[in-house]
Every structure is written in structure tokens, then in C-alpha cells.
Design a protein that fits this description.
By secondary structure, this protein is an all-alpha fold. It folds into two domains: 3-57; 60-274, MetI-like fold, CATH 1.10.3720. The chain contains 15 helices and no strands. The chain has helices spanning 3-37, 41-45, 59-67, 70-100, 107-116, 122-135, 143-146, 154-164, 169-177, 182-193, 195-210, 214-219, 228-236, 243-263, 265-274. Helix 4 crosses helix 8.
């Protein structure tokens, strides 16, 4: 074996070792969550922490639905998440298309302003936006969680803009020559070509909305409208916490996120990769 081959083998071994260690760091807490969800409350209270339970209590998952209105919280979360995904895909793609493929005065000025708004954290605009929704009588409803997604998000606009810039302008010009208006070009030509980028935006939005806690905490004050994050926090804030049921509910809470990522992993990676081709 030559010296270069040995160096490549060592480098490969070192990189794989680092990846395995990092993977273990991220996987162990999840395994602990699953193990704890199958333990009894007495076993969880013991000082010796173990991942594998002594006795598997599968009934913890059934008891979750008795102690928590889990299905109602899931449907509430699913409604907000689906509406948010639809809103972000429609609004962000429209803005990104207008910034790349439609000529209009001031286009070069608007995009830096849109990107600059990412410097404003949510905590800065939280109180003024809350007061606006309160004046409109929307506090206590899902609208404050859904309406912002139909106005576009700067990060998703930037992401889609980078992808749209890779599409040839000759394709758009040929469609205009054939008599297609901007809406037909956008819906029938551009959108089908940018499925990977749209999938990345959809996944990002799904992950953020599904696990969002601060938004529902601000605007939802009715137990029947709670999302999963808010419902689980309310269950934990009771006079004592049933950690076995809380861990079982948390395990079910993370399941859609894992399923979503594994099924859409190809489109997610492809979308993120292609958006960085052209600046």
C-alpha cells in the first residue's frame, strides 16, 4: 500500500470516527427519551439512570390519550402547520419570482431591505405585533399564527431567489413570446422546476411550526385550541409531573418530524444544494 493510500485511509478513518461520535451525541438523548417513555414512574425516580427499562410499560402510550387530549392537540397543530406550509410556499415563491424574473423599478433596492429584516429578532417585534392582533380581535384564534406565513419570510424568499436565479431567462422569454402571462409562467413553468427548493421551504416551515412554542403561548388562551407544545407544557405545569406519560407524549411528538425528514431527505438536500449554485 502506497503512502498516499495510507494517508487517505487514515483521513477516512478519522472523519468516520468523528461522524460516529457526533451521531452518538445526538442519538443518545433520543434513545433516553424512548427508554424513559417505557419506564414506570418509580423506576424513573431511581438515581441510577439507564436507557433500557427493567420492565417495558407499553401502556404508557395508551395512558397518554387518557390523561391528555392528545388527538385534539395533534389536529390543532396539524391545522396550523399545514396552513403555514401552504402560506410560506405561495407567498415566498411569489416574492422570489418577482425579484428575479420580473423587471420592475426598485427591485434591486427591495431585496436588500427584505434580507435586512432577518436582523430583527422575533422578540423585537413581538409586542407591537401582539398589540395589532389584539386591536383586530384575533388574539385567542389561530389567525396570528397563520397570517404571517402568507406575507413571506425573508429567509425563504432568499432561499427561493437563489434557486430561481439558476433558471435560464431564455425559458421565461420564450414563454412570454408564446403569449403566456406572468401567472402562467410562474405556475406552469417555474413552480414545477423548483420542486426541490419548495420542498426545502416546506420542510423548514413544517419543523418550525410543529415545534413552535412561543407563538401559541402568546396568542392561544383556550385549552381546546392548544397545540402540542403548549398542551404538553400545560400538562407538565400541573401539581406534579408524570414523567413517564410526558416522555411517551414527547416521543410521539417527535415522530412526525423524523418521518418527514426521512421521506423528504432527498428533496431537502437537493434544494439546499441547488440554492447555493448561483449568487
Amino acid at each position: 500500500m502506497t503512502g498516499s493510500a495510507v494517508r487517505k485511509l487514515r483521513a477516512s478513518f478519522a472523519s468516520h470516527t468523528v461522524l460516529i461520535v457526533l451521531s452518538a451525541i445526538f442519538v443518545i438523548p433520543f434513545l433516553w427519551l424512548l427508554g424513559t417513555s417505557l419506564k414506570s414512574l418509580n423506576e424513573i425516580s431511581l438515581s441510577n439512570l439507564t436507557i433500557i427499562p427493567r420492565v417495558f410499560h407499553w401502556d404508557n402510550y395508551a395512558r397518554v390519550f387518557e390523561r391528555i387530549p392528545y388527538l385534539r392537540y395533534t389536529m390543532n397543530t396539524l391545522f396550523v402547520t399545514v396552513m403555514s406550509v401552504i402560506g410560506q410556499i405561495i407567498s415566498s415563491s411569489l416574492v422570489a419570482y418577482s425579484l428575479t424574473k420580473v423587471e420592475w423599478k426598485g427591485r434591486g433596492i427591495i431585496f436588500p431591505i427584505v434580507v435586512a429584516t432577518m436582523l430583527l429578532p422575533f422578540q423585537v417585534t413581538m409586542i407591537p405585533v401582539y398589540m395589532i392582533y389584539q386591536k383586530l380581535g384575533l388574539v385567542g384564534t389561530y389567525w396570528p399564527l397563520i397570517i404571517p406565513t402568507f406575507t413571506g419570510a425573508p429567509f425563504y424568499i432568499f432561499l427561493l431567489r437563489q434557486f430561481f436565479m439558476t433558471l435560464p431567462d431564455t425559458l421565461i422569454q420564450a414563454a412570454r413570446i408564446d403569449g403566456a402571462n406572468e401567472w402562467k409562467i410562474f405556475s406552469r413553468i417555474v413552480m414545477p422546476l423548483c420542486r426541490p427548493a419548495l420542498a426545502a421551504v416546506g420542510i423548514f416551515t413544517f419543523l418550525y411550526t410543529w415545534s413552535d412554542f412561543l407563538g401559541p403561548l402568546l396568542y392561544l388562551n383556550d385549552n381546546a385550541k392548544y397545540t402540542l407544545t403548549l398542551g404538553l407544557q400545560a400538562f407538565m405545569a400541573e401539581h406534579y409531573t408524570e414523567w413517564d406519560l410526558l416522555m411517551a407524549a414527547s416521543a410521539m411528538f417527535t415522530l412526525p418530524i423524523i418521518v418527514m425528514f426521512f421521506f423528504a431527505q432527498k428533496y431537502f438536500i437537493e434544494g439546499i444544494t441547488l440554492t447555493g449554485i448561483k449568487g
